[in-house]
């Protein structure tokens, strides 16, 4: 399975957020950070794990705010306080749901969003190894214009 390209991720973010987005080579979100990342789990039609997407806290807050037309100060306050309001999380969940379409463009396996683990939630044991996998992943730093930047990792559980 191929992983989404940076251009496809950029197109998704720009299309949903309605603003310019800058992408650069990213790094794996810090799973041990004080305020952990948001982790999305995708499955196939047999409910088998296929892909894991990890979005660090600043990007989760930025996406949630930008999608909800909340001024950048809302995202900055969430990052500073280390608390993500439910409304920002729900908006981030929507982007992660739409990300399934982008993931599907690069796969022969039909995938759908199964669950989103909020920042700070304990991840199931079968998900944790994929968040730190060395291969089969794309790591991108995403900077929505006017909002804090952050990192997104997309990890394929399927053979690449």
List keywords for this structure.
alpha+beta; Chemotaxis phosphatase CheX-like domain-containing protein; 6-stranded antiparallel sheet; single chain; 6 strands; 160 residues; globular
Describe this structure in words.
By secondary structure, this protein is of the alpha+beta class. 36% of the residues lie in helices and 24% in strands. The protein is built from 5 helices and 6 strands; from the N terminus they run H-E-E-E-H-H-H-E-H-E-E. A 6-stranded antiparallel sheet has the order 1-5-6-3-2-4. A hairpin with a 5-residue loop joins strand 5 and strand 6. Helix 2 packs across helix 4. The model has no long low-confidence stretch (mean pLDDT 95). This is Chemotaxis phosphatase CheX-like domain-containing protein. It comes from Angustibacter luteus.
**What Rg is obtained from the alpha carbons, in whole angstroms?**
14 Å
Quaternary structure: single chain
Low-confidence stretches: none
User: Helicity, in percent?
Assistant: 25-40%
How is the biggest beta sheet arranged? 6 strands, antiparallel
Count the DSSP helices. 5
- Shape descriptor reads globular
Identify the strand order in the major beta sheet. 1-5-6-3-2-4
Strand content: 15-25%
* Rounded mean pLDDT score: 95
Q: Which structural class best describes the helix and strand composition?
A: alpha+beta
> How many E-type strands?
6
First CA to last CA: what distance? 4 Å
Elements, N to C (H/E): HEEEHHHEHEE
């Amino acid at each position: 399975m191929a992983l989404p390209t940076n251009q496809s991720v950029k197109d998704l973010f720009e299309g949903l957020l309605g603003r310019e987005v800058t992408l650069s080579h990213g790094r794996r979100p810090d799973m041990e950070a004080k305020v952990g990342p948001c982790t999305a789990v995708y499955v196939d039609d047999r409910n088998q794990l296929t892909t894991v997407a990890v979005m660090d806290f600043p990007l989760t807050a930025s996406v949630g705010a930008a999608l909800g037309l909340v001024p950048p100060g809302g995202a900055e306050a969430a990052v500073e306080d280390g608390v993500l309001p439910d409304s920002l999380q729900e908006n981030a969940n929507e982007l992660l749901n739409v990300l399934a379409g982008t993931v599907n463009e690069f796969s022969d396996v039909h995938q759908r969003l199964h669950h989103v683990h909020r920042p700070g939630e304990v991840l199931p044991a079968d998900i944790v190894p994929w968040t730190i996998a060395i291969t089969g992943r794309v790591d991108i730093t995403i900077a929505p214009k006017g909002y804090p930047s952050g990192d997104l990792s997309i990890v394929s559980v399927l053979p690449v």
